[in-house]
Amino acid sequence: xxxxxxxxxxxxxxxxxxxxxxxxLGSKLIVFSTVLTAVAISLxxxxxxxxxxxxxxxxxxxxxxxxxxxxxxxxxxxxxxLVRTSTLMTDNPTLRxxxxxxxxxxRPGAPPRPDLLATIQREAExxxxxxxxDLLVVTDRQGKVLAASAHPGSGPAVGDDLSPRETVRLALRxxxxxxxxxxxxxxxxxxxxxxxxxxxxxxxFIIGTLTLGDRIDQGFAARLRESFDSDAVITAGDEIxxxxxxxxxxxxxxxxxxxxxxxAGDAPPAVVMLGDGEYITAPLPLGRDGDGRPVTLHLLHSLxxxxxxxxxxxxRTLLSYGTLAAILAGLAAWLVSRSxxxxxxxxxxxxxxxxxxxxxxxxxxxxxxSREVQTLSETYxxxxxxxxxxxxxxxSGARDEIDRMERLKESEKLAALGxxxSGAxxxxxxxxxxxxxxxxxxxxDARLDERVRPRLELVRREGQRIVALVRSLLKVAxxxxxxxxxxxxxxxxxxxxxxxxxxxxxxxxxxxxxxSPEPVRIHGNELELQQVxxxxxxxxxxxxxxxxxxxxxxxxxxxxxxxxxRVDVTFADNGPGMESPExxxxxxxxxxxxxKGTGLGLSISHAxxxxxxxxxxxxxxxxxxxxxxIAIPSGAAPPAAAERIDAPKRPMxxxxxxxxxxxxxxxxxxxxxxxxxxxxxxxGASAVGVGSGEEAVAVLKEKGxxxxxxxxxxxxxxxxxxxxxxxxxNRPAGRDRFLFVxxxxxxxxxxxxxxxxxxxxxxxxxxxYLSALRETLDALRPAA
Length: 784
Fold this sequence. Notes:
Elements: H1 16-21, H2 25-91, H3 93-105, H4 114-131, E1 135-140, E2 145-149, H5 166-172, E3 183-188, E4 191-202, E5 205-215, H6 218-228, E6 231-236, E7 239-243, H7 247-250, E8 270-274, E9 277-288, E10 294-302, H8 303-357, H9 371-443, H10 453-477, E11 485-488, H11 489-506, E12 510-514, E13 521-524, H12 526-544, E14 555-563, E15 566-573, H13 601-611, E16 615-620, E17 626-633, H14 639-646, E18 662-666, H15 670-682, E19 686-690, H16 693-702, E20 707-711, H17 720-730, E21 738-742, H18 749-755, E22 758-761, H19 766-783
Parallel strand pairs: 12-14, 18-19, 18-20, 20-21, 21-22
Antiparallel strand pairs: 1-2, 1-5, 3-4, 4-5, 6-7, 6-10, 8-9, 9-10, 11-13, 14-15, 15-17, 16-17
Helix pairs in contact: 2-8, 3-4, 9-10, 9-15, 10-11, 11-12, 12-13, 16-17
C-alpha cells in the first residue's frame, strides 16, 4: 500500500511588520509621515468630538432643565386651576343646591336620592366638558363617589368609596393650604391618571372632594413630547406606563433611568444609555399610585441624535482635509528621502560593484558627498582594510581548524580500533588457551608417538608466537596507567617489531636488528616506549612503500647501544626522507592525506621521551632516508630494582611435581575449565570446577578450598570481581587464596592493583599455570 503523502506545510505569511522592515528608507519615511499625519488628525478629531459632545450634552441638559422648570410651573398652574374649579363648583347654584340637599337628607343606611345624584352627575359632566379633563370625580364628605366623568370602563363608579386613597383622604382632612401633596396618581381598572384632589368647601366646611386628572397613556406622552420637544417616559415603580422612545430603547428596564425620589424634581439632568443611544434625562415626580409606587415622568433628549449631524459633518471634514494633509506629508517625506537617499544609493551602488568584483582594495571617494556619506565612506575604507587582514587570518585559521578536526576524527577512529582490537584479542585468548594447554599436556605424555611429537612441537611453537602477538596487541590497544618499572629496551624493540614483521615481509621490506649484547635497561613505562617505537616504525613503513623498485630493497634498521649512563635507540631507513624534519614533532603536522595520518603520533612520542628524561631527534641521512635518534638516561633505574633484574631467577618448579591442595576452578569457557581440571588432575590436586560465579558462591557456602582459581570476566550477575567481594565479606580467610586467570587485565587493572591479587594471563602454559598455583600456596604458608 502506498504511504499517504505528507501534508504540505504552507509557507508562513509574512507579518505586516516584517514586510515594512524590508522596505526602503524612502518608503518608511513616506509611510511614517502619512501615518503620523493621520494619527494627529484622528486625535484632533477625537478631541473635537469630545468637546462637541461635552458642549452638546451641556446644552441639552440646560434645555432639559428649562423644560423641567416649565413642567413644574405647569403643575403649579394645574393646582391653581383645580382650586378655581373647586370654587366654581361651589358657586354653581344647581350643583351647590344638589349637594346641600344631599348632605341634609342622606341618612346612615338610607339609599341616596337618584334625582340628586343625576343632578350632580349632569353638572359635573358640564364642568368636565369645559375643562377638557379625562377624569372628574366628585365625592361626599365620606369619600363616596357622587359623580364621575371619564371614558367608559376607565374611571370609578358612583357609590365607590375613595376614602382609602391617600390623596382623597388628605383632601377630606385638609387643614393646610393646597400644595404639591394634593397631586397623585390614581389607577382605576388598569388605567392610571395624574390627578389633583382638593376639598369642596361650603361656608368654611368640607362637604366633599373634587378630583380632576388626565389619563397617563401614549397620547399623554405624545402630548408631552409635542409640548416640550423631548421624549417622555412615565414609570410606576419598575413598570413603564408609557413612552415615546423607539422600540429598542423603550423596552429597557426602569433602573436605566435612575431612581426618582420625592425630590426628583430638583435633581440635575443625567446621561443614560438606552439601547444603542445616549439620552439626557431629567426626572419629575407625578406622585404615588394606589400601590404606593412612585410615578415619575422622565423627560429625555437624545444625545446620539443631536450629535449625529455634527459627527457626520466632522467626518466629512476629517476625510477631505485629512486625505489632503496625508498626501502633502507623504510628498514632503518623499522629497526629503530623495535628498537623503540619493548619495546613499550612490554609495550602495559602489559597494555592490566592489562585492561583484571582489576587489576589496578599491576605495570610495566621498569628498563631494554630504558629511554623513563622508563619514560612511571613511568608516567603510577602514572596515575594508581590517576585513582584508581578517579574511587572511580567518582563511588560514579555517584551514588549520579543518585539518585539526580531520586529524581528531582519525584519532578517534584509532581509539575505537584499539578498543575493538582489545576485545578481539580477549576473545582469541580463551580458545587459544585450550589449544596451547592441551598440546602441552600431550607433549608431557610419555606414551605419545614419537612420530607425532615433532608436529606437536611445531604447533606449540607457532601457538606461542600467536600468544606473544596477542599480548603485544593488548599492550598496544590499552592505555597504560603511567606506572614505571625496569624495562629491557631490547625486548621492547623485539615486541614492537614483531607486531609489524609480517607487514614488512609481505611488502618486500627488511627489518634489520642490531641490538646491544649488553643489558639495555631503563626505569620507564614499557607501553609508552612501545608506542614511541611503533609510531616511528609505522611512519618508516609508509615512507618505504613509496620507494618501490626504483632503488635497492627498502629496509628499516634498528640499533640499540649503551653510551655511559645513556641508552641510545636509532631507527634509520633508506626511504625518501622527510620534507621538514624540524616540524615533524609539531602537533597535527603531517604530510599524509586526510584519513591516513593524524599528525599526533610523533608529537605524542616526543612528549613521552621527554617525560622519561630523554630526547628524540629527526634528520635526513646524507645518502637518503630518515633517521630518528632516541636517548634516554639509564641512571634513572633504582639500584634495588636493577639488582632484582640482574639477580638470577630461582629455578622454576617442575610442573610434574605433585600438588596436594583443594582447588575451586571457576571459568565460563568449558574448554579452559576442562584444561585446568586436567592439569590439576595430572598433579594429584583435589579440584572442583564450576562454570559461573553463582555456582561458585553456592559451592563456597558448603565448603572451603586451599585455592580459588577464577576467570575475571564472566557473564551473569557474579563475575570474578563480584566473587572476590563475596569471599572477602563472607569468607575473609579465602581473600588471599585467589588466583585470577584472564585474557585481558587492562580493563580491571585498578581492581587488581587495589586487592593485590595474583593474576595469570591467558593463554598460559602448563608450567606457568602450576607455577602460579604453587606461588600462591607458598605465599600462604608464612601467614599460616
